[in-house]
Amino acid sequence: MSLEDHVGDILRKARIQSKGTAAAAAAAAGLSEDDYAMLEESGRIIKRTDLFTAAALVGVSGGRLENIAKGWEPETVYTECWRELRTITTTDNFSVNCYLVWDEVTREAALFDTGWDAAPIFKHIDEHKLELKYIFITHGHSDHMACLPAVRARFPKTWLRSGSKHAPVDQRNRANDFIHLGSLRITNRPTPGHAEDGVTYVVGNWPEDAAHVAFVGDAIFAGSMGKDFHTPDEAKRHIREQILSLPPDTLICSGHGPITTVKQEREHNPFFVY
């Protein structure tokens, strides 16, 4: 699975978050404004471009940005250690990931977001003879909960959890919640920024001591982060404190793009330099 954001996407997000102008970024990159606009739009570097200076201007790492331009992607995560984890990707104009997790003994399952289409979710549930007990919503954007009504119609007894302050009280995440799914343990961490109600869910206590898995919505992607043009410093702080503070081998399962790890993002993400 390709990265969610190319070099141009990263520059555009960082530029707007830093309140920079396209003209200033073009000058820093040594490009005309038209050529720079094309770079932000397509991510293609067709002329000599000073990525380091442009990156410094908008507040990201030039070295890491250049690595992405050269084709960096996170090392492939083989999920055999997490036998009861499935990524379900659906497409409607663009693709979005949701994730299904279950306990291997009790067959109790949890769904993290829903994506566009319920059919592949139902297929996995039926194939593995699962009991869907929880639906966890990382944030309320339409692509992440488009088929929520269909899933709830088929499984009306599932418990819904989200960070929305507008949700019924019994559906809201609470600080220090520990939800058990068979032997698995699910906690939540607030990660607002890309969305006001952004939440990261961390699943631990996997069989054979497999690493934690963090379902982060659009807070952070492999090599990038979700757009936040209003409170970017706060968004980054939440990502650092709530996601990148997790153990290095923790899986990061984003709403778009490939699975990555805390270690890889700490070492390669242009927005977060340690």
Descriptive notes:
With 274 residues, the chain is α+β, with helices and mostly antiparallel strands. The protein has 2 domains: 63 residues, lambda repressor-like DNA-binding domains (434 Repressor (Amino-terminal Domain)), CATH 1.10.260.40; 190 residues, Metallo-beta-lactamase, Chain A (4-Layer Sandwich), CATH 3.60.15.10. It has a 6-stranded mixed beta sheet with strand order 6-7-8-9-12-13. It has a 5-stranded mixed beta sheet with strand order 1-2-3-4-5, with helices on one face. Strands 10-11 form a two-stranded antiparallel ribbon. Strand 3, helix 6 and strand 4 form a beta-alpha-beta unit.
In short:
With 274 residues, the chain is an alpha+beta fold. It folds into 2 domains: 63 residues, lambda repressor-like DNA-binding domains (434 Repressor (Amino-terminal Domain), Orthogonal Bundle), CATH 1.10.260; 190 residues, Metallo-beta-lactamase, Chain A (4-Layer Sandwich), CATH 3.60.15. The chain contains 10 helices and 13 strands.
Summarize model confidence as the mean pLDDT.
96
Backbone structural class: alpha+beta
Number of structural domains? 2
- Please, how many helices? 10
Instruction: Fill in the CATH topology of the largest domain.
Output: Metallo-beta-lactamase, Chain A
Query: Order of strands across the biggest sheet?
Result: 6-7-8-9-12-13
CATH class of the largest domain: Alpha Beta
Q: Considering the protein shown, what is the CATH homologous superfamily of the largest domain?
A: Ribonuclease Z/Hydroxyacylglutathione hydrolase-like
Report the end-to-end length measured between terminal Cα atoms. 26 Å
- The helical percent reads 25-40%
Radius of gyration: 19 Å
The poorly predicted ranges are none
H/E series, N to C? HHHHHEEEHEHHEEEEEEEHEEH
Quickly give the CATH architecture of the largest domain. 4-Layer Sandwich
- How large a portion of the residues is in β-strands, by DSSP E? 15-25%
Inertia-based shape: elongated
Number of β-strand runs:
13
| Biggest beta-sheet profile | 6 strands, mixed
